[in-house]
Amino acid sequence: MFPEIGQFSLILSLFFALSLASVPLIGYWRGNRLLLEAARPLTFIMSALVLVSFITLSWSFLSDDFSVLYVAQNSNSQLPVWYKFSALWGGHEGSLLLWVLILSGWCSVVAFKIKTLPEDVGPVVLSVLGMVSLGFLSFLLFTSSPFARLLPDTPVDGGDLNPLLQDFGLIVHPPVLYMGYVGFSVAFGFAVAALITGNLNASWARWARPWTAASWAFLTLGITLGSWWAYYELGWGGWWFWDPVENASFMPWLAGTALLHSLAVTEKRGVFKSWTILLAIFTFSLSLLGAFLVRSGVLTSVHSFAADPTRGIFILVLLLVLVGGSLLLYAVRAVEVRSSVSFGASGREAWLLLNNILLTVLTLTVLLGTLYPLIFDALNLGKISVGAPYFNSVFTPIALLLMVFMAVGPLSKWHHTKFSVFAKVCSTSAFIAILSAGLVVYYYGFGFIAWLSLAVAFWVVFLSCADWFGKVSAGTKGIIPRARQLPRNYYGMLFAHLGMVVSLVGIVLVSVNSHESMLRLSPGDNATVAGYDFMFDSMEQVDGPNYVSNKGQFTAYKSGEAVAVLYPEKRFFTTRQQVMTEAALDAGFTRDLYVSLGERLDGSAWGVRIYVKSFVRWIWLGGLLMMAGGLLAALDKRYRKRAGG
Amino acid sequence: MHPVRKKRLLVITAIVLILGAAVTLVMYALQQNINLFYSPSQIAMGEAPRHVNIRAGGLVVDGSVKRNPETLAVVFEATDYQHTVTIEYRGILPDLFREGQGIVAQGQLNDGGVFIATEVLAKHDEKYMPPEVSEAVKNAQSSMGESKASSQSTY
């Protein structure tokens, strides 16, 4: 009964999405206020129906209703209850429902806040969002309904959730990531509405900015969580693999970062208007491309859902319609939004333009590396894979260059900056940064790249602090009241930039100062890695709720003192007959100890991975700081005021 | 020159310079880091280059996995049911590595035609077969079908 309610309300919501996509637009063209005002109630009803459908599916999961095919495939009566709930988005159909739920959630929030927009713009934004919802709802209903039944041959028990997904990471990573991905459709909605209405002034950018900043913050957190999850769950200690699906989330992040910066220019100076619109469209297209790559199975990756060609074609068509349509609209209308204000070659505009060029280039290099195997295969040149070395060697220099400018840009003034303003502060801090990074690198014996990166990191920190201090110490009031007066937007930037630096330091140190060894050990053996003695104490059999486990005990000693006891496991999941590695970690601010079990070899010997990773936590700490920056920027007071007219 | 044009020229020059540098970088990196996949049949016929980073894969032959009793070294054979290739690896194999399972390895062919792997990948799903491997098996099958049309294969 419940699954049918879910299916039915999903179909109903499709109709409401259809009306939302058309009625307000007709109202806009006819000048009919009644039709325009229908946008809000239509949005709320659509969202409520999607929510009903989501709740019914959750109920099917929690009540072990294995007559539902999707539940039978992804759950099991033995599964702990919180995994039963998160199993909802453990497969293609359910995760798409989650996607649609989050999309309709964003739509509702936009509908709540719509009053700050001019009367005819808001409904058009909602209408564009209705079109996007229409696309995803029909994708869900026509190719991948999660409510299909297994009647009358209902299985006694379900096929269980993939053991890899039975983890806290699955509970949080997909929803947060989708919040980010889907959030960019709001920026897209604003961009397309601006093209339709031709209403693109500085206040347009002011409306679009907080939404973009909020989605960017979620996407940042989602990517950070994904990286952290992969690190501890996959059992071999990597934190980023340049896997196609990771790239699929990283590309919208890069484009979204560019969008945040160009929106700032558009708001403050009224330039780059058409470019900003184009970036908003691109960012959303890259989110869609990501969905296509993950769900069509065209690329091999650790994430891919079961491949189904019809799904791939459906998303491809959706991508072509939405992106093609908006680009066509852009081609026709963008001439009218051209900006006439000029800007100086040394002003902040120029720095932000440089930022945008570099970020776009970065996005394109990642895009090329991700799609290259597809192009190669389509041209019948053979099956290839583009490995991490490609991305590392292309990405590192461009990203470092970008960060060099990241330090200077915030010091500049709008329109024009006197060169002498930079010269003194930059040269002193560059000197100190290069010298101090040199000392660190010399002391620890790191290489050239590490020196360069650390110098850049120090430089950004010096200049950011100098900028902040200069701002708070000017004037007659005390430092604290002045610091409180600075806009949240500014602190958002400061946090995001410093977060970037923290991540950079983590990335550099983990790649130059980590010690990894794969060993053959039996209980009683010990091994020395990077100054730590690891003692393999014992091995025992343990029963879990839905698995049996070989649990090892290792004690790590530093100069004779025990610093950590680690329990790596090898779990055998009985339902799926699948083996899973559960790595053991001792997390620290400056280093992680990481032990994971390989296979059992002859007798009592095991293959064991032992890593000592320095500063790996900083990578995610930086991600959290960046997210905080994004949220601060989204919550700036200026955006909460009503638009004047 | 007119100041607006001068500015535009500056912007365009900057874009061209950055793009040019990026394209050079990309081309260079792509040349160095593309790894072509070769099936066991292609390797047996000598199509695969030696001492070059490539990928090879197939199904792990039953009973072919031999471990060194002292170290983590392991030798096994991968097949597309037509030919097999011997793969050597030193390290920890993935959880889903087992006999009969499709795997893809990254590494180089040595002079003796043995594949020295630096990485062995198996997917985290027992139903999954790497697309390269399933295609290699299919191709080998169809060429076998032409020569021995009567052989009934269930694979």
Automatic annotation (TrEMBL), chain A:
It comes from the Bacteria. It is found in: Cell inner membrane. It is a multi-pass membrane protein. The keyword Transmembrane helix applies. GO terms for biological process: cytochrome complex assembly. Residues 316-637 form the Cytochrome c-type biogenesis protein CcmF C-terminal domain. One of its GO terms (molecular function) is heme transmembrane transporter activity. Keywords: Cell inner membrane, Cell membrane, Cytochrome c-type biogenesis, Membrane, Transmembrane, Transmembrane helix. Its main location: membrane. Coiled coil: none annotated. GO terms for cellular component: plasma membrane. The chain crosses the membrane at residues 6-29, 41-62, 96-114, 121-142, 178-198, 210-230, 250-266, 275-293, 313-332, 353-375, 387-409, 421-442, 448-469, 490-512, 615-635. Residues 89-296 form the Cytochrome c assembly protein domain. Required for the biogenesis of c-type cytochromes. Possible subunit of a heme lyase. Belongs to the CcmF/CycK/Ccl1/NrfE/CcsA family. This is Cytochrome c-type biogenesis protein CcmF. The lineage of its organism: Bacteria, Pseudomonadati, Pseudomonadota, Gammaproteobacteria, Oceanospirillales.
TrEMBL record, chain B:
One of its GO terms (cellular component) is plasma membrane. The keyword Aminoacyl-tRNA synthetase does not apply. The keyword Transport does not apply. Residues 1-8 are cytoplasmic. Keywords: Cell inner membrane, Cell membrane, Cytochrome c-type biogenesis, Heme, Iron, Membrane, Metal-binding, Signal-anchor, Transmembrane, Transmembrane helix. It is a single-pass type II membrane protein. SUPFAM superfamilies: Heme chaperone CcmE. It is found in: Cell inner membrane; Cell membrane. Residues 139-155 have a biased composition (Polar residues). One of its GO terms (biological process) is cytochrome complex assembly. Residues 30-155 are extracellular. Heme binds at H124, Y128. Pfam families: CcmE. Residues 132-155 are annotated as: Disordered. InterPro entries: CcmE, CcmE-like_sf, NA-bd_OB-fold. GO terms for molecular function: heme binding; metal ion binding. PANTHER family: CYTOCHROME C-TYPE BIOGENESIS PROTEIN CCME HOMOLOG, MITOCHONDRIAL (PTHR34128). Belongs to the CcmE/CycJ family. This is Cytochrome c-type biogenesis protein CcmE. It comes from Marinomonas foliarum. The gene is ccmE.
